């Protein structure tokens, strides 16, 4: 159930609108009549100010509803126009004039025309009304709304605390944030790729269309800031000094005043909400990581403990020896056997024989086949599934010279059990090590090679690191925030330029230059540009990035960043 300050799951407004003020009993007793500015009736009223002097604008801060009898207002048309202009300039919400003392039957036409032209709500009170009754009623409403604001902030903290305790996933946190705010919410990584979103009832395709370019135009100052030009409230997501994304909430500038800030600025509760949601996302990521480590420590095998450093290596060696797998004074090689991404088990839809049903069964079959292949090849080692797609193996060999022979024997035995291995299964191996303390490096390398080679169509018995190359390694590391930070540091300025000038796309020019080995003539041909135009673009790229494109070292760094960007953008 929604608490105070929340209506139907959505946060209530902070201030009453001009329309709501006109509906109050003390105002209705004055027989109000709207003369001009109907389009501004939904402006929030931050305060009520009574005045009888024309130069009151200098004492106002915006958002006030001004009450007057008009006795001190200018008598000439120029003065009245200036009075209305001054009120609009400071951002008042509306002007209420009581008839009878200065204006017997109606406000001057010049005042009505000026208010209509500037969109300022102008209201006549046709019966005498004590202004104190109006101010009391409106201020009571404002105080009550501010109390609701505090309660809404408390509701935000309670809601996200519950989500943290329940271990809610990323999508649920984003959904709750959008539901509370009633606004679209998007979570992106450092490369401006959308990780989760909730359109809050709006068109999702329009919301996400051209997201990366749109997001790169948002450069708010500080960890949390509002970009008034685009209407996005942005906060950084991360913990322990490691930022890994941004959470964005759309609050269009046409939304009106809030908290006394300029027109369109989001109210304080939304800043609280987006920051609380971001901290919940960051905390959830840390908790899930710790929970998985604990789960591995309690339920996974010694192989998983080695991979994740969740147990001391001396304890692992002792337990492994008790299992009949001596790891001391052995040459150790990490191996990963995994299903390729394009296997039938991964192409089906859930509930139709897809991964939800066939995946675990296929992995169990693969793990059994790996164990049998080890026995058939007369090899000793630890083996276990390490994730939803891969079975890990730690080979314990008597000497380093036996490494190639042992891997070939294992791959051959597995192939005999999986004749269609090249189409379904691949084997990847890391570098051999001589110490159990180094074995994680071999296992991680094997996992990296397996990840990078999963789309490789070559029929290799065993994939090793030289087979996948730099592009494959970067593809594996595409979700690593440090790699994304490197790409942003090297190419961010150019990507931002291309986002602002979509017809130029200087990134393609840089790519052609680097892929042609820094040969400008060949690069111009590849880019379909004349040599002068190509040279001019290269000069502009150098200025934007602040680098010398004739420098081998600078170009190498840019080329790696380009390859990393391709890996990040490739699903």
Automatic annotation (TrEMBL):
CdaR GGDEF-like domain span: 313-451
InterPro entries: CdaR-like_regulators, CdaR_GGDEF, PucR_C-HTH_dom, PucR_C-HTH_sf, PucR_dom
Purine catabolism PurC-like domain mapped to chain residues: 20-142
One Pfam family, short name: PucR
Source organism superkingdom: Bacteria
Record-linked Gene3D superfamilies: PucR C-terminal helix-turn-helix domain (1.10.10.2840)
PucR C-terminal helix-turn-helix domain boundaries: 506-564
Family per record: Belongs to the CdaR family.
Record's protein name: PucR family transcriptional regulator ligand-binding domain-containing protein
The species this protein was found in: Micromonospora humidisoli
């Amino acid at each position: 159930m929604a608490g105070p300050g929340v209506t139907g799951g959505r946060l209530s407004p902070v201030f009453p609108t001009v329309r709501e003020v006109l509906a109050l009993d003390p105002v209705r007793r004055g027989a109000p009549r709207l003369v001009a500015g109907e389009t501004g009736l939904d402006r929030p009223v931050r305060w009520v100010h009574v005045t009888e002097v024309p130069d009151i604008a200098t004492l106002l801060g915006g958002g006030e509803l001004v009450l007057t009898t008009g006795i001190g207002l200018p008598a000439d048309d120029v003065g009245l126009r200036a009075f209305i202009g001054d009120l609009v300039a400071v951002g008042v919400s509306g002007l209420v004039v009581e008839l009878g003392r200065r204006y017997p039957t109606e406000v001057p036409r010049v005042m009505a025309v000026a208010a209509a032209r500037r969109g300022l709500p102008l209201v006549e009170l046709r019966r005498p009304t004590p202004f104190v009754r109006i101010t009391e009623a409106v201020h009571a409403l404002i105080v009550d709304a501010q109390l609701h604001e505090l309660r809404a902030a408390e509701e935000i903290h309670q809601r996200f605390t519950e989500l943290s305790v329940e271990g809610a996933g990323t999508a649920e946190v984003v959904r709750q944030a959008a539901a509370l705010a009633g606004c679209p919410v998007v979570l992106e990584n450092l490369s401006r790729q959308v990780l989760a979103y909730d359109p809050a009832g709006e068109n999702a395709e329009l919301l996400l269309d051209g997201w990366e370019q749109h997001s790169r135009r948002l450069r708010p100052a500080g960890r949390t800031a509002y970009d008034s030009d685009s209407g996005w409230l942005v906060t950084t997501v991360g913990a322990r000094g490691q930022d890994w994304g941004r959470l964005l909430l759309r609050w269009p500038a046409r939304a009106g005043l809030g908290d006394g800030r300029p027109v369109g600025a989001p109210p304080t509760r939304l800043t609280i909400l987006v920051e609380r949601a971001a901290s919940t996302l960051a905390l959830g990521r840390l908790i899930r990581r710790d929970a998985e480590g604990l789960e591995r420590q309690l339920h996974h095998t010694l192989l998983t403990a080695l991979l994740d450093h969740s147990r001391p290596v001396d304890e692992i060696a002792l337990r492994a020896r008790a299992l009949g797998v001596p790891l001391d004074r052995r040459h150790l090689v990490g191996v990963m056997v995994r299903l390729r991404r394009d296997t039938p088990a991964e192409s089906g839809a859930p509930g139709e024989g897809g991964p939800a049903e066939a995946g675990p069964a296929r992995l169990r079959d693969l793990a059994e086949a790996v164990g049998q292949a080890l026995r058939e090849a007369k090899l000793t080692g630890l083996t276990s599934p390490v994730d939803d797609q891969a079975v890990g193996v730690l080979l314990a060999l008597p000497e380093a010279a036996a490494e190639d022979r042992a891997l070939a024997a294992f791959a051959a035995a597995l192939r005999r059990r999986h004749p269609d291995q090249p189409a379904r299964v691949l084997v990847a191996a890391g570098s051999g090590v001589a110490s159990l303390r180094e074995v994680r490096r071999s296992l991680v390398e094997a996992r990296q090679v397996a990840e990078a080679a999963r789309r490789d169509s070559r029929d290799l018995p065993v994939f090793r690191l030289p087979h996948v190359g730099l592009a494959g390694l970067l593809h594996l590391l595409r979700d690593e925030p440090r790699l994304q930070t490197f790409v942003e540091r090297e190419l961010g300025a150019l990507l931002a330029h291309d986002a602002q000038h979509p017809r130029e796309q200087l990134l393609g020019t840089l790519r052609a230059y680097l892929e042609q080995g820094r040969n400008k003539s060949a690069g111009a041909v590849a880019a379909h540009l004349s040599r002068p135009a190509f040279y001019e673009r290269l000069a502009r790229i150098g200025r934007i990035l602040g680098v010398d494109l004739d420098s081998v070292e600078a170009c190498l760094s840019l080329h790696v960043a380009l390859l990393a960007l391709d890996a990040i953008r490739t699903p």
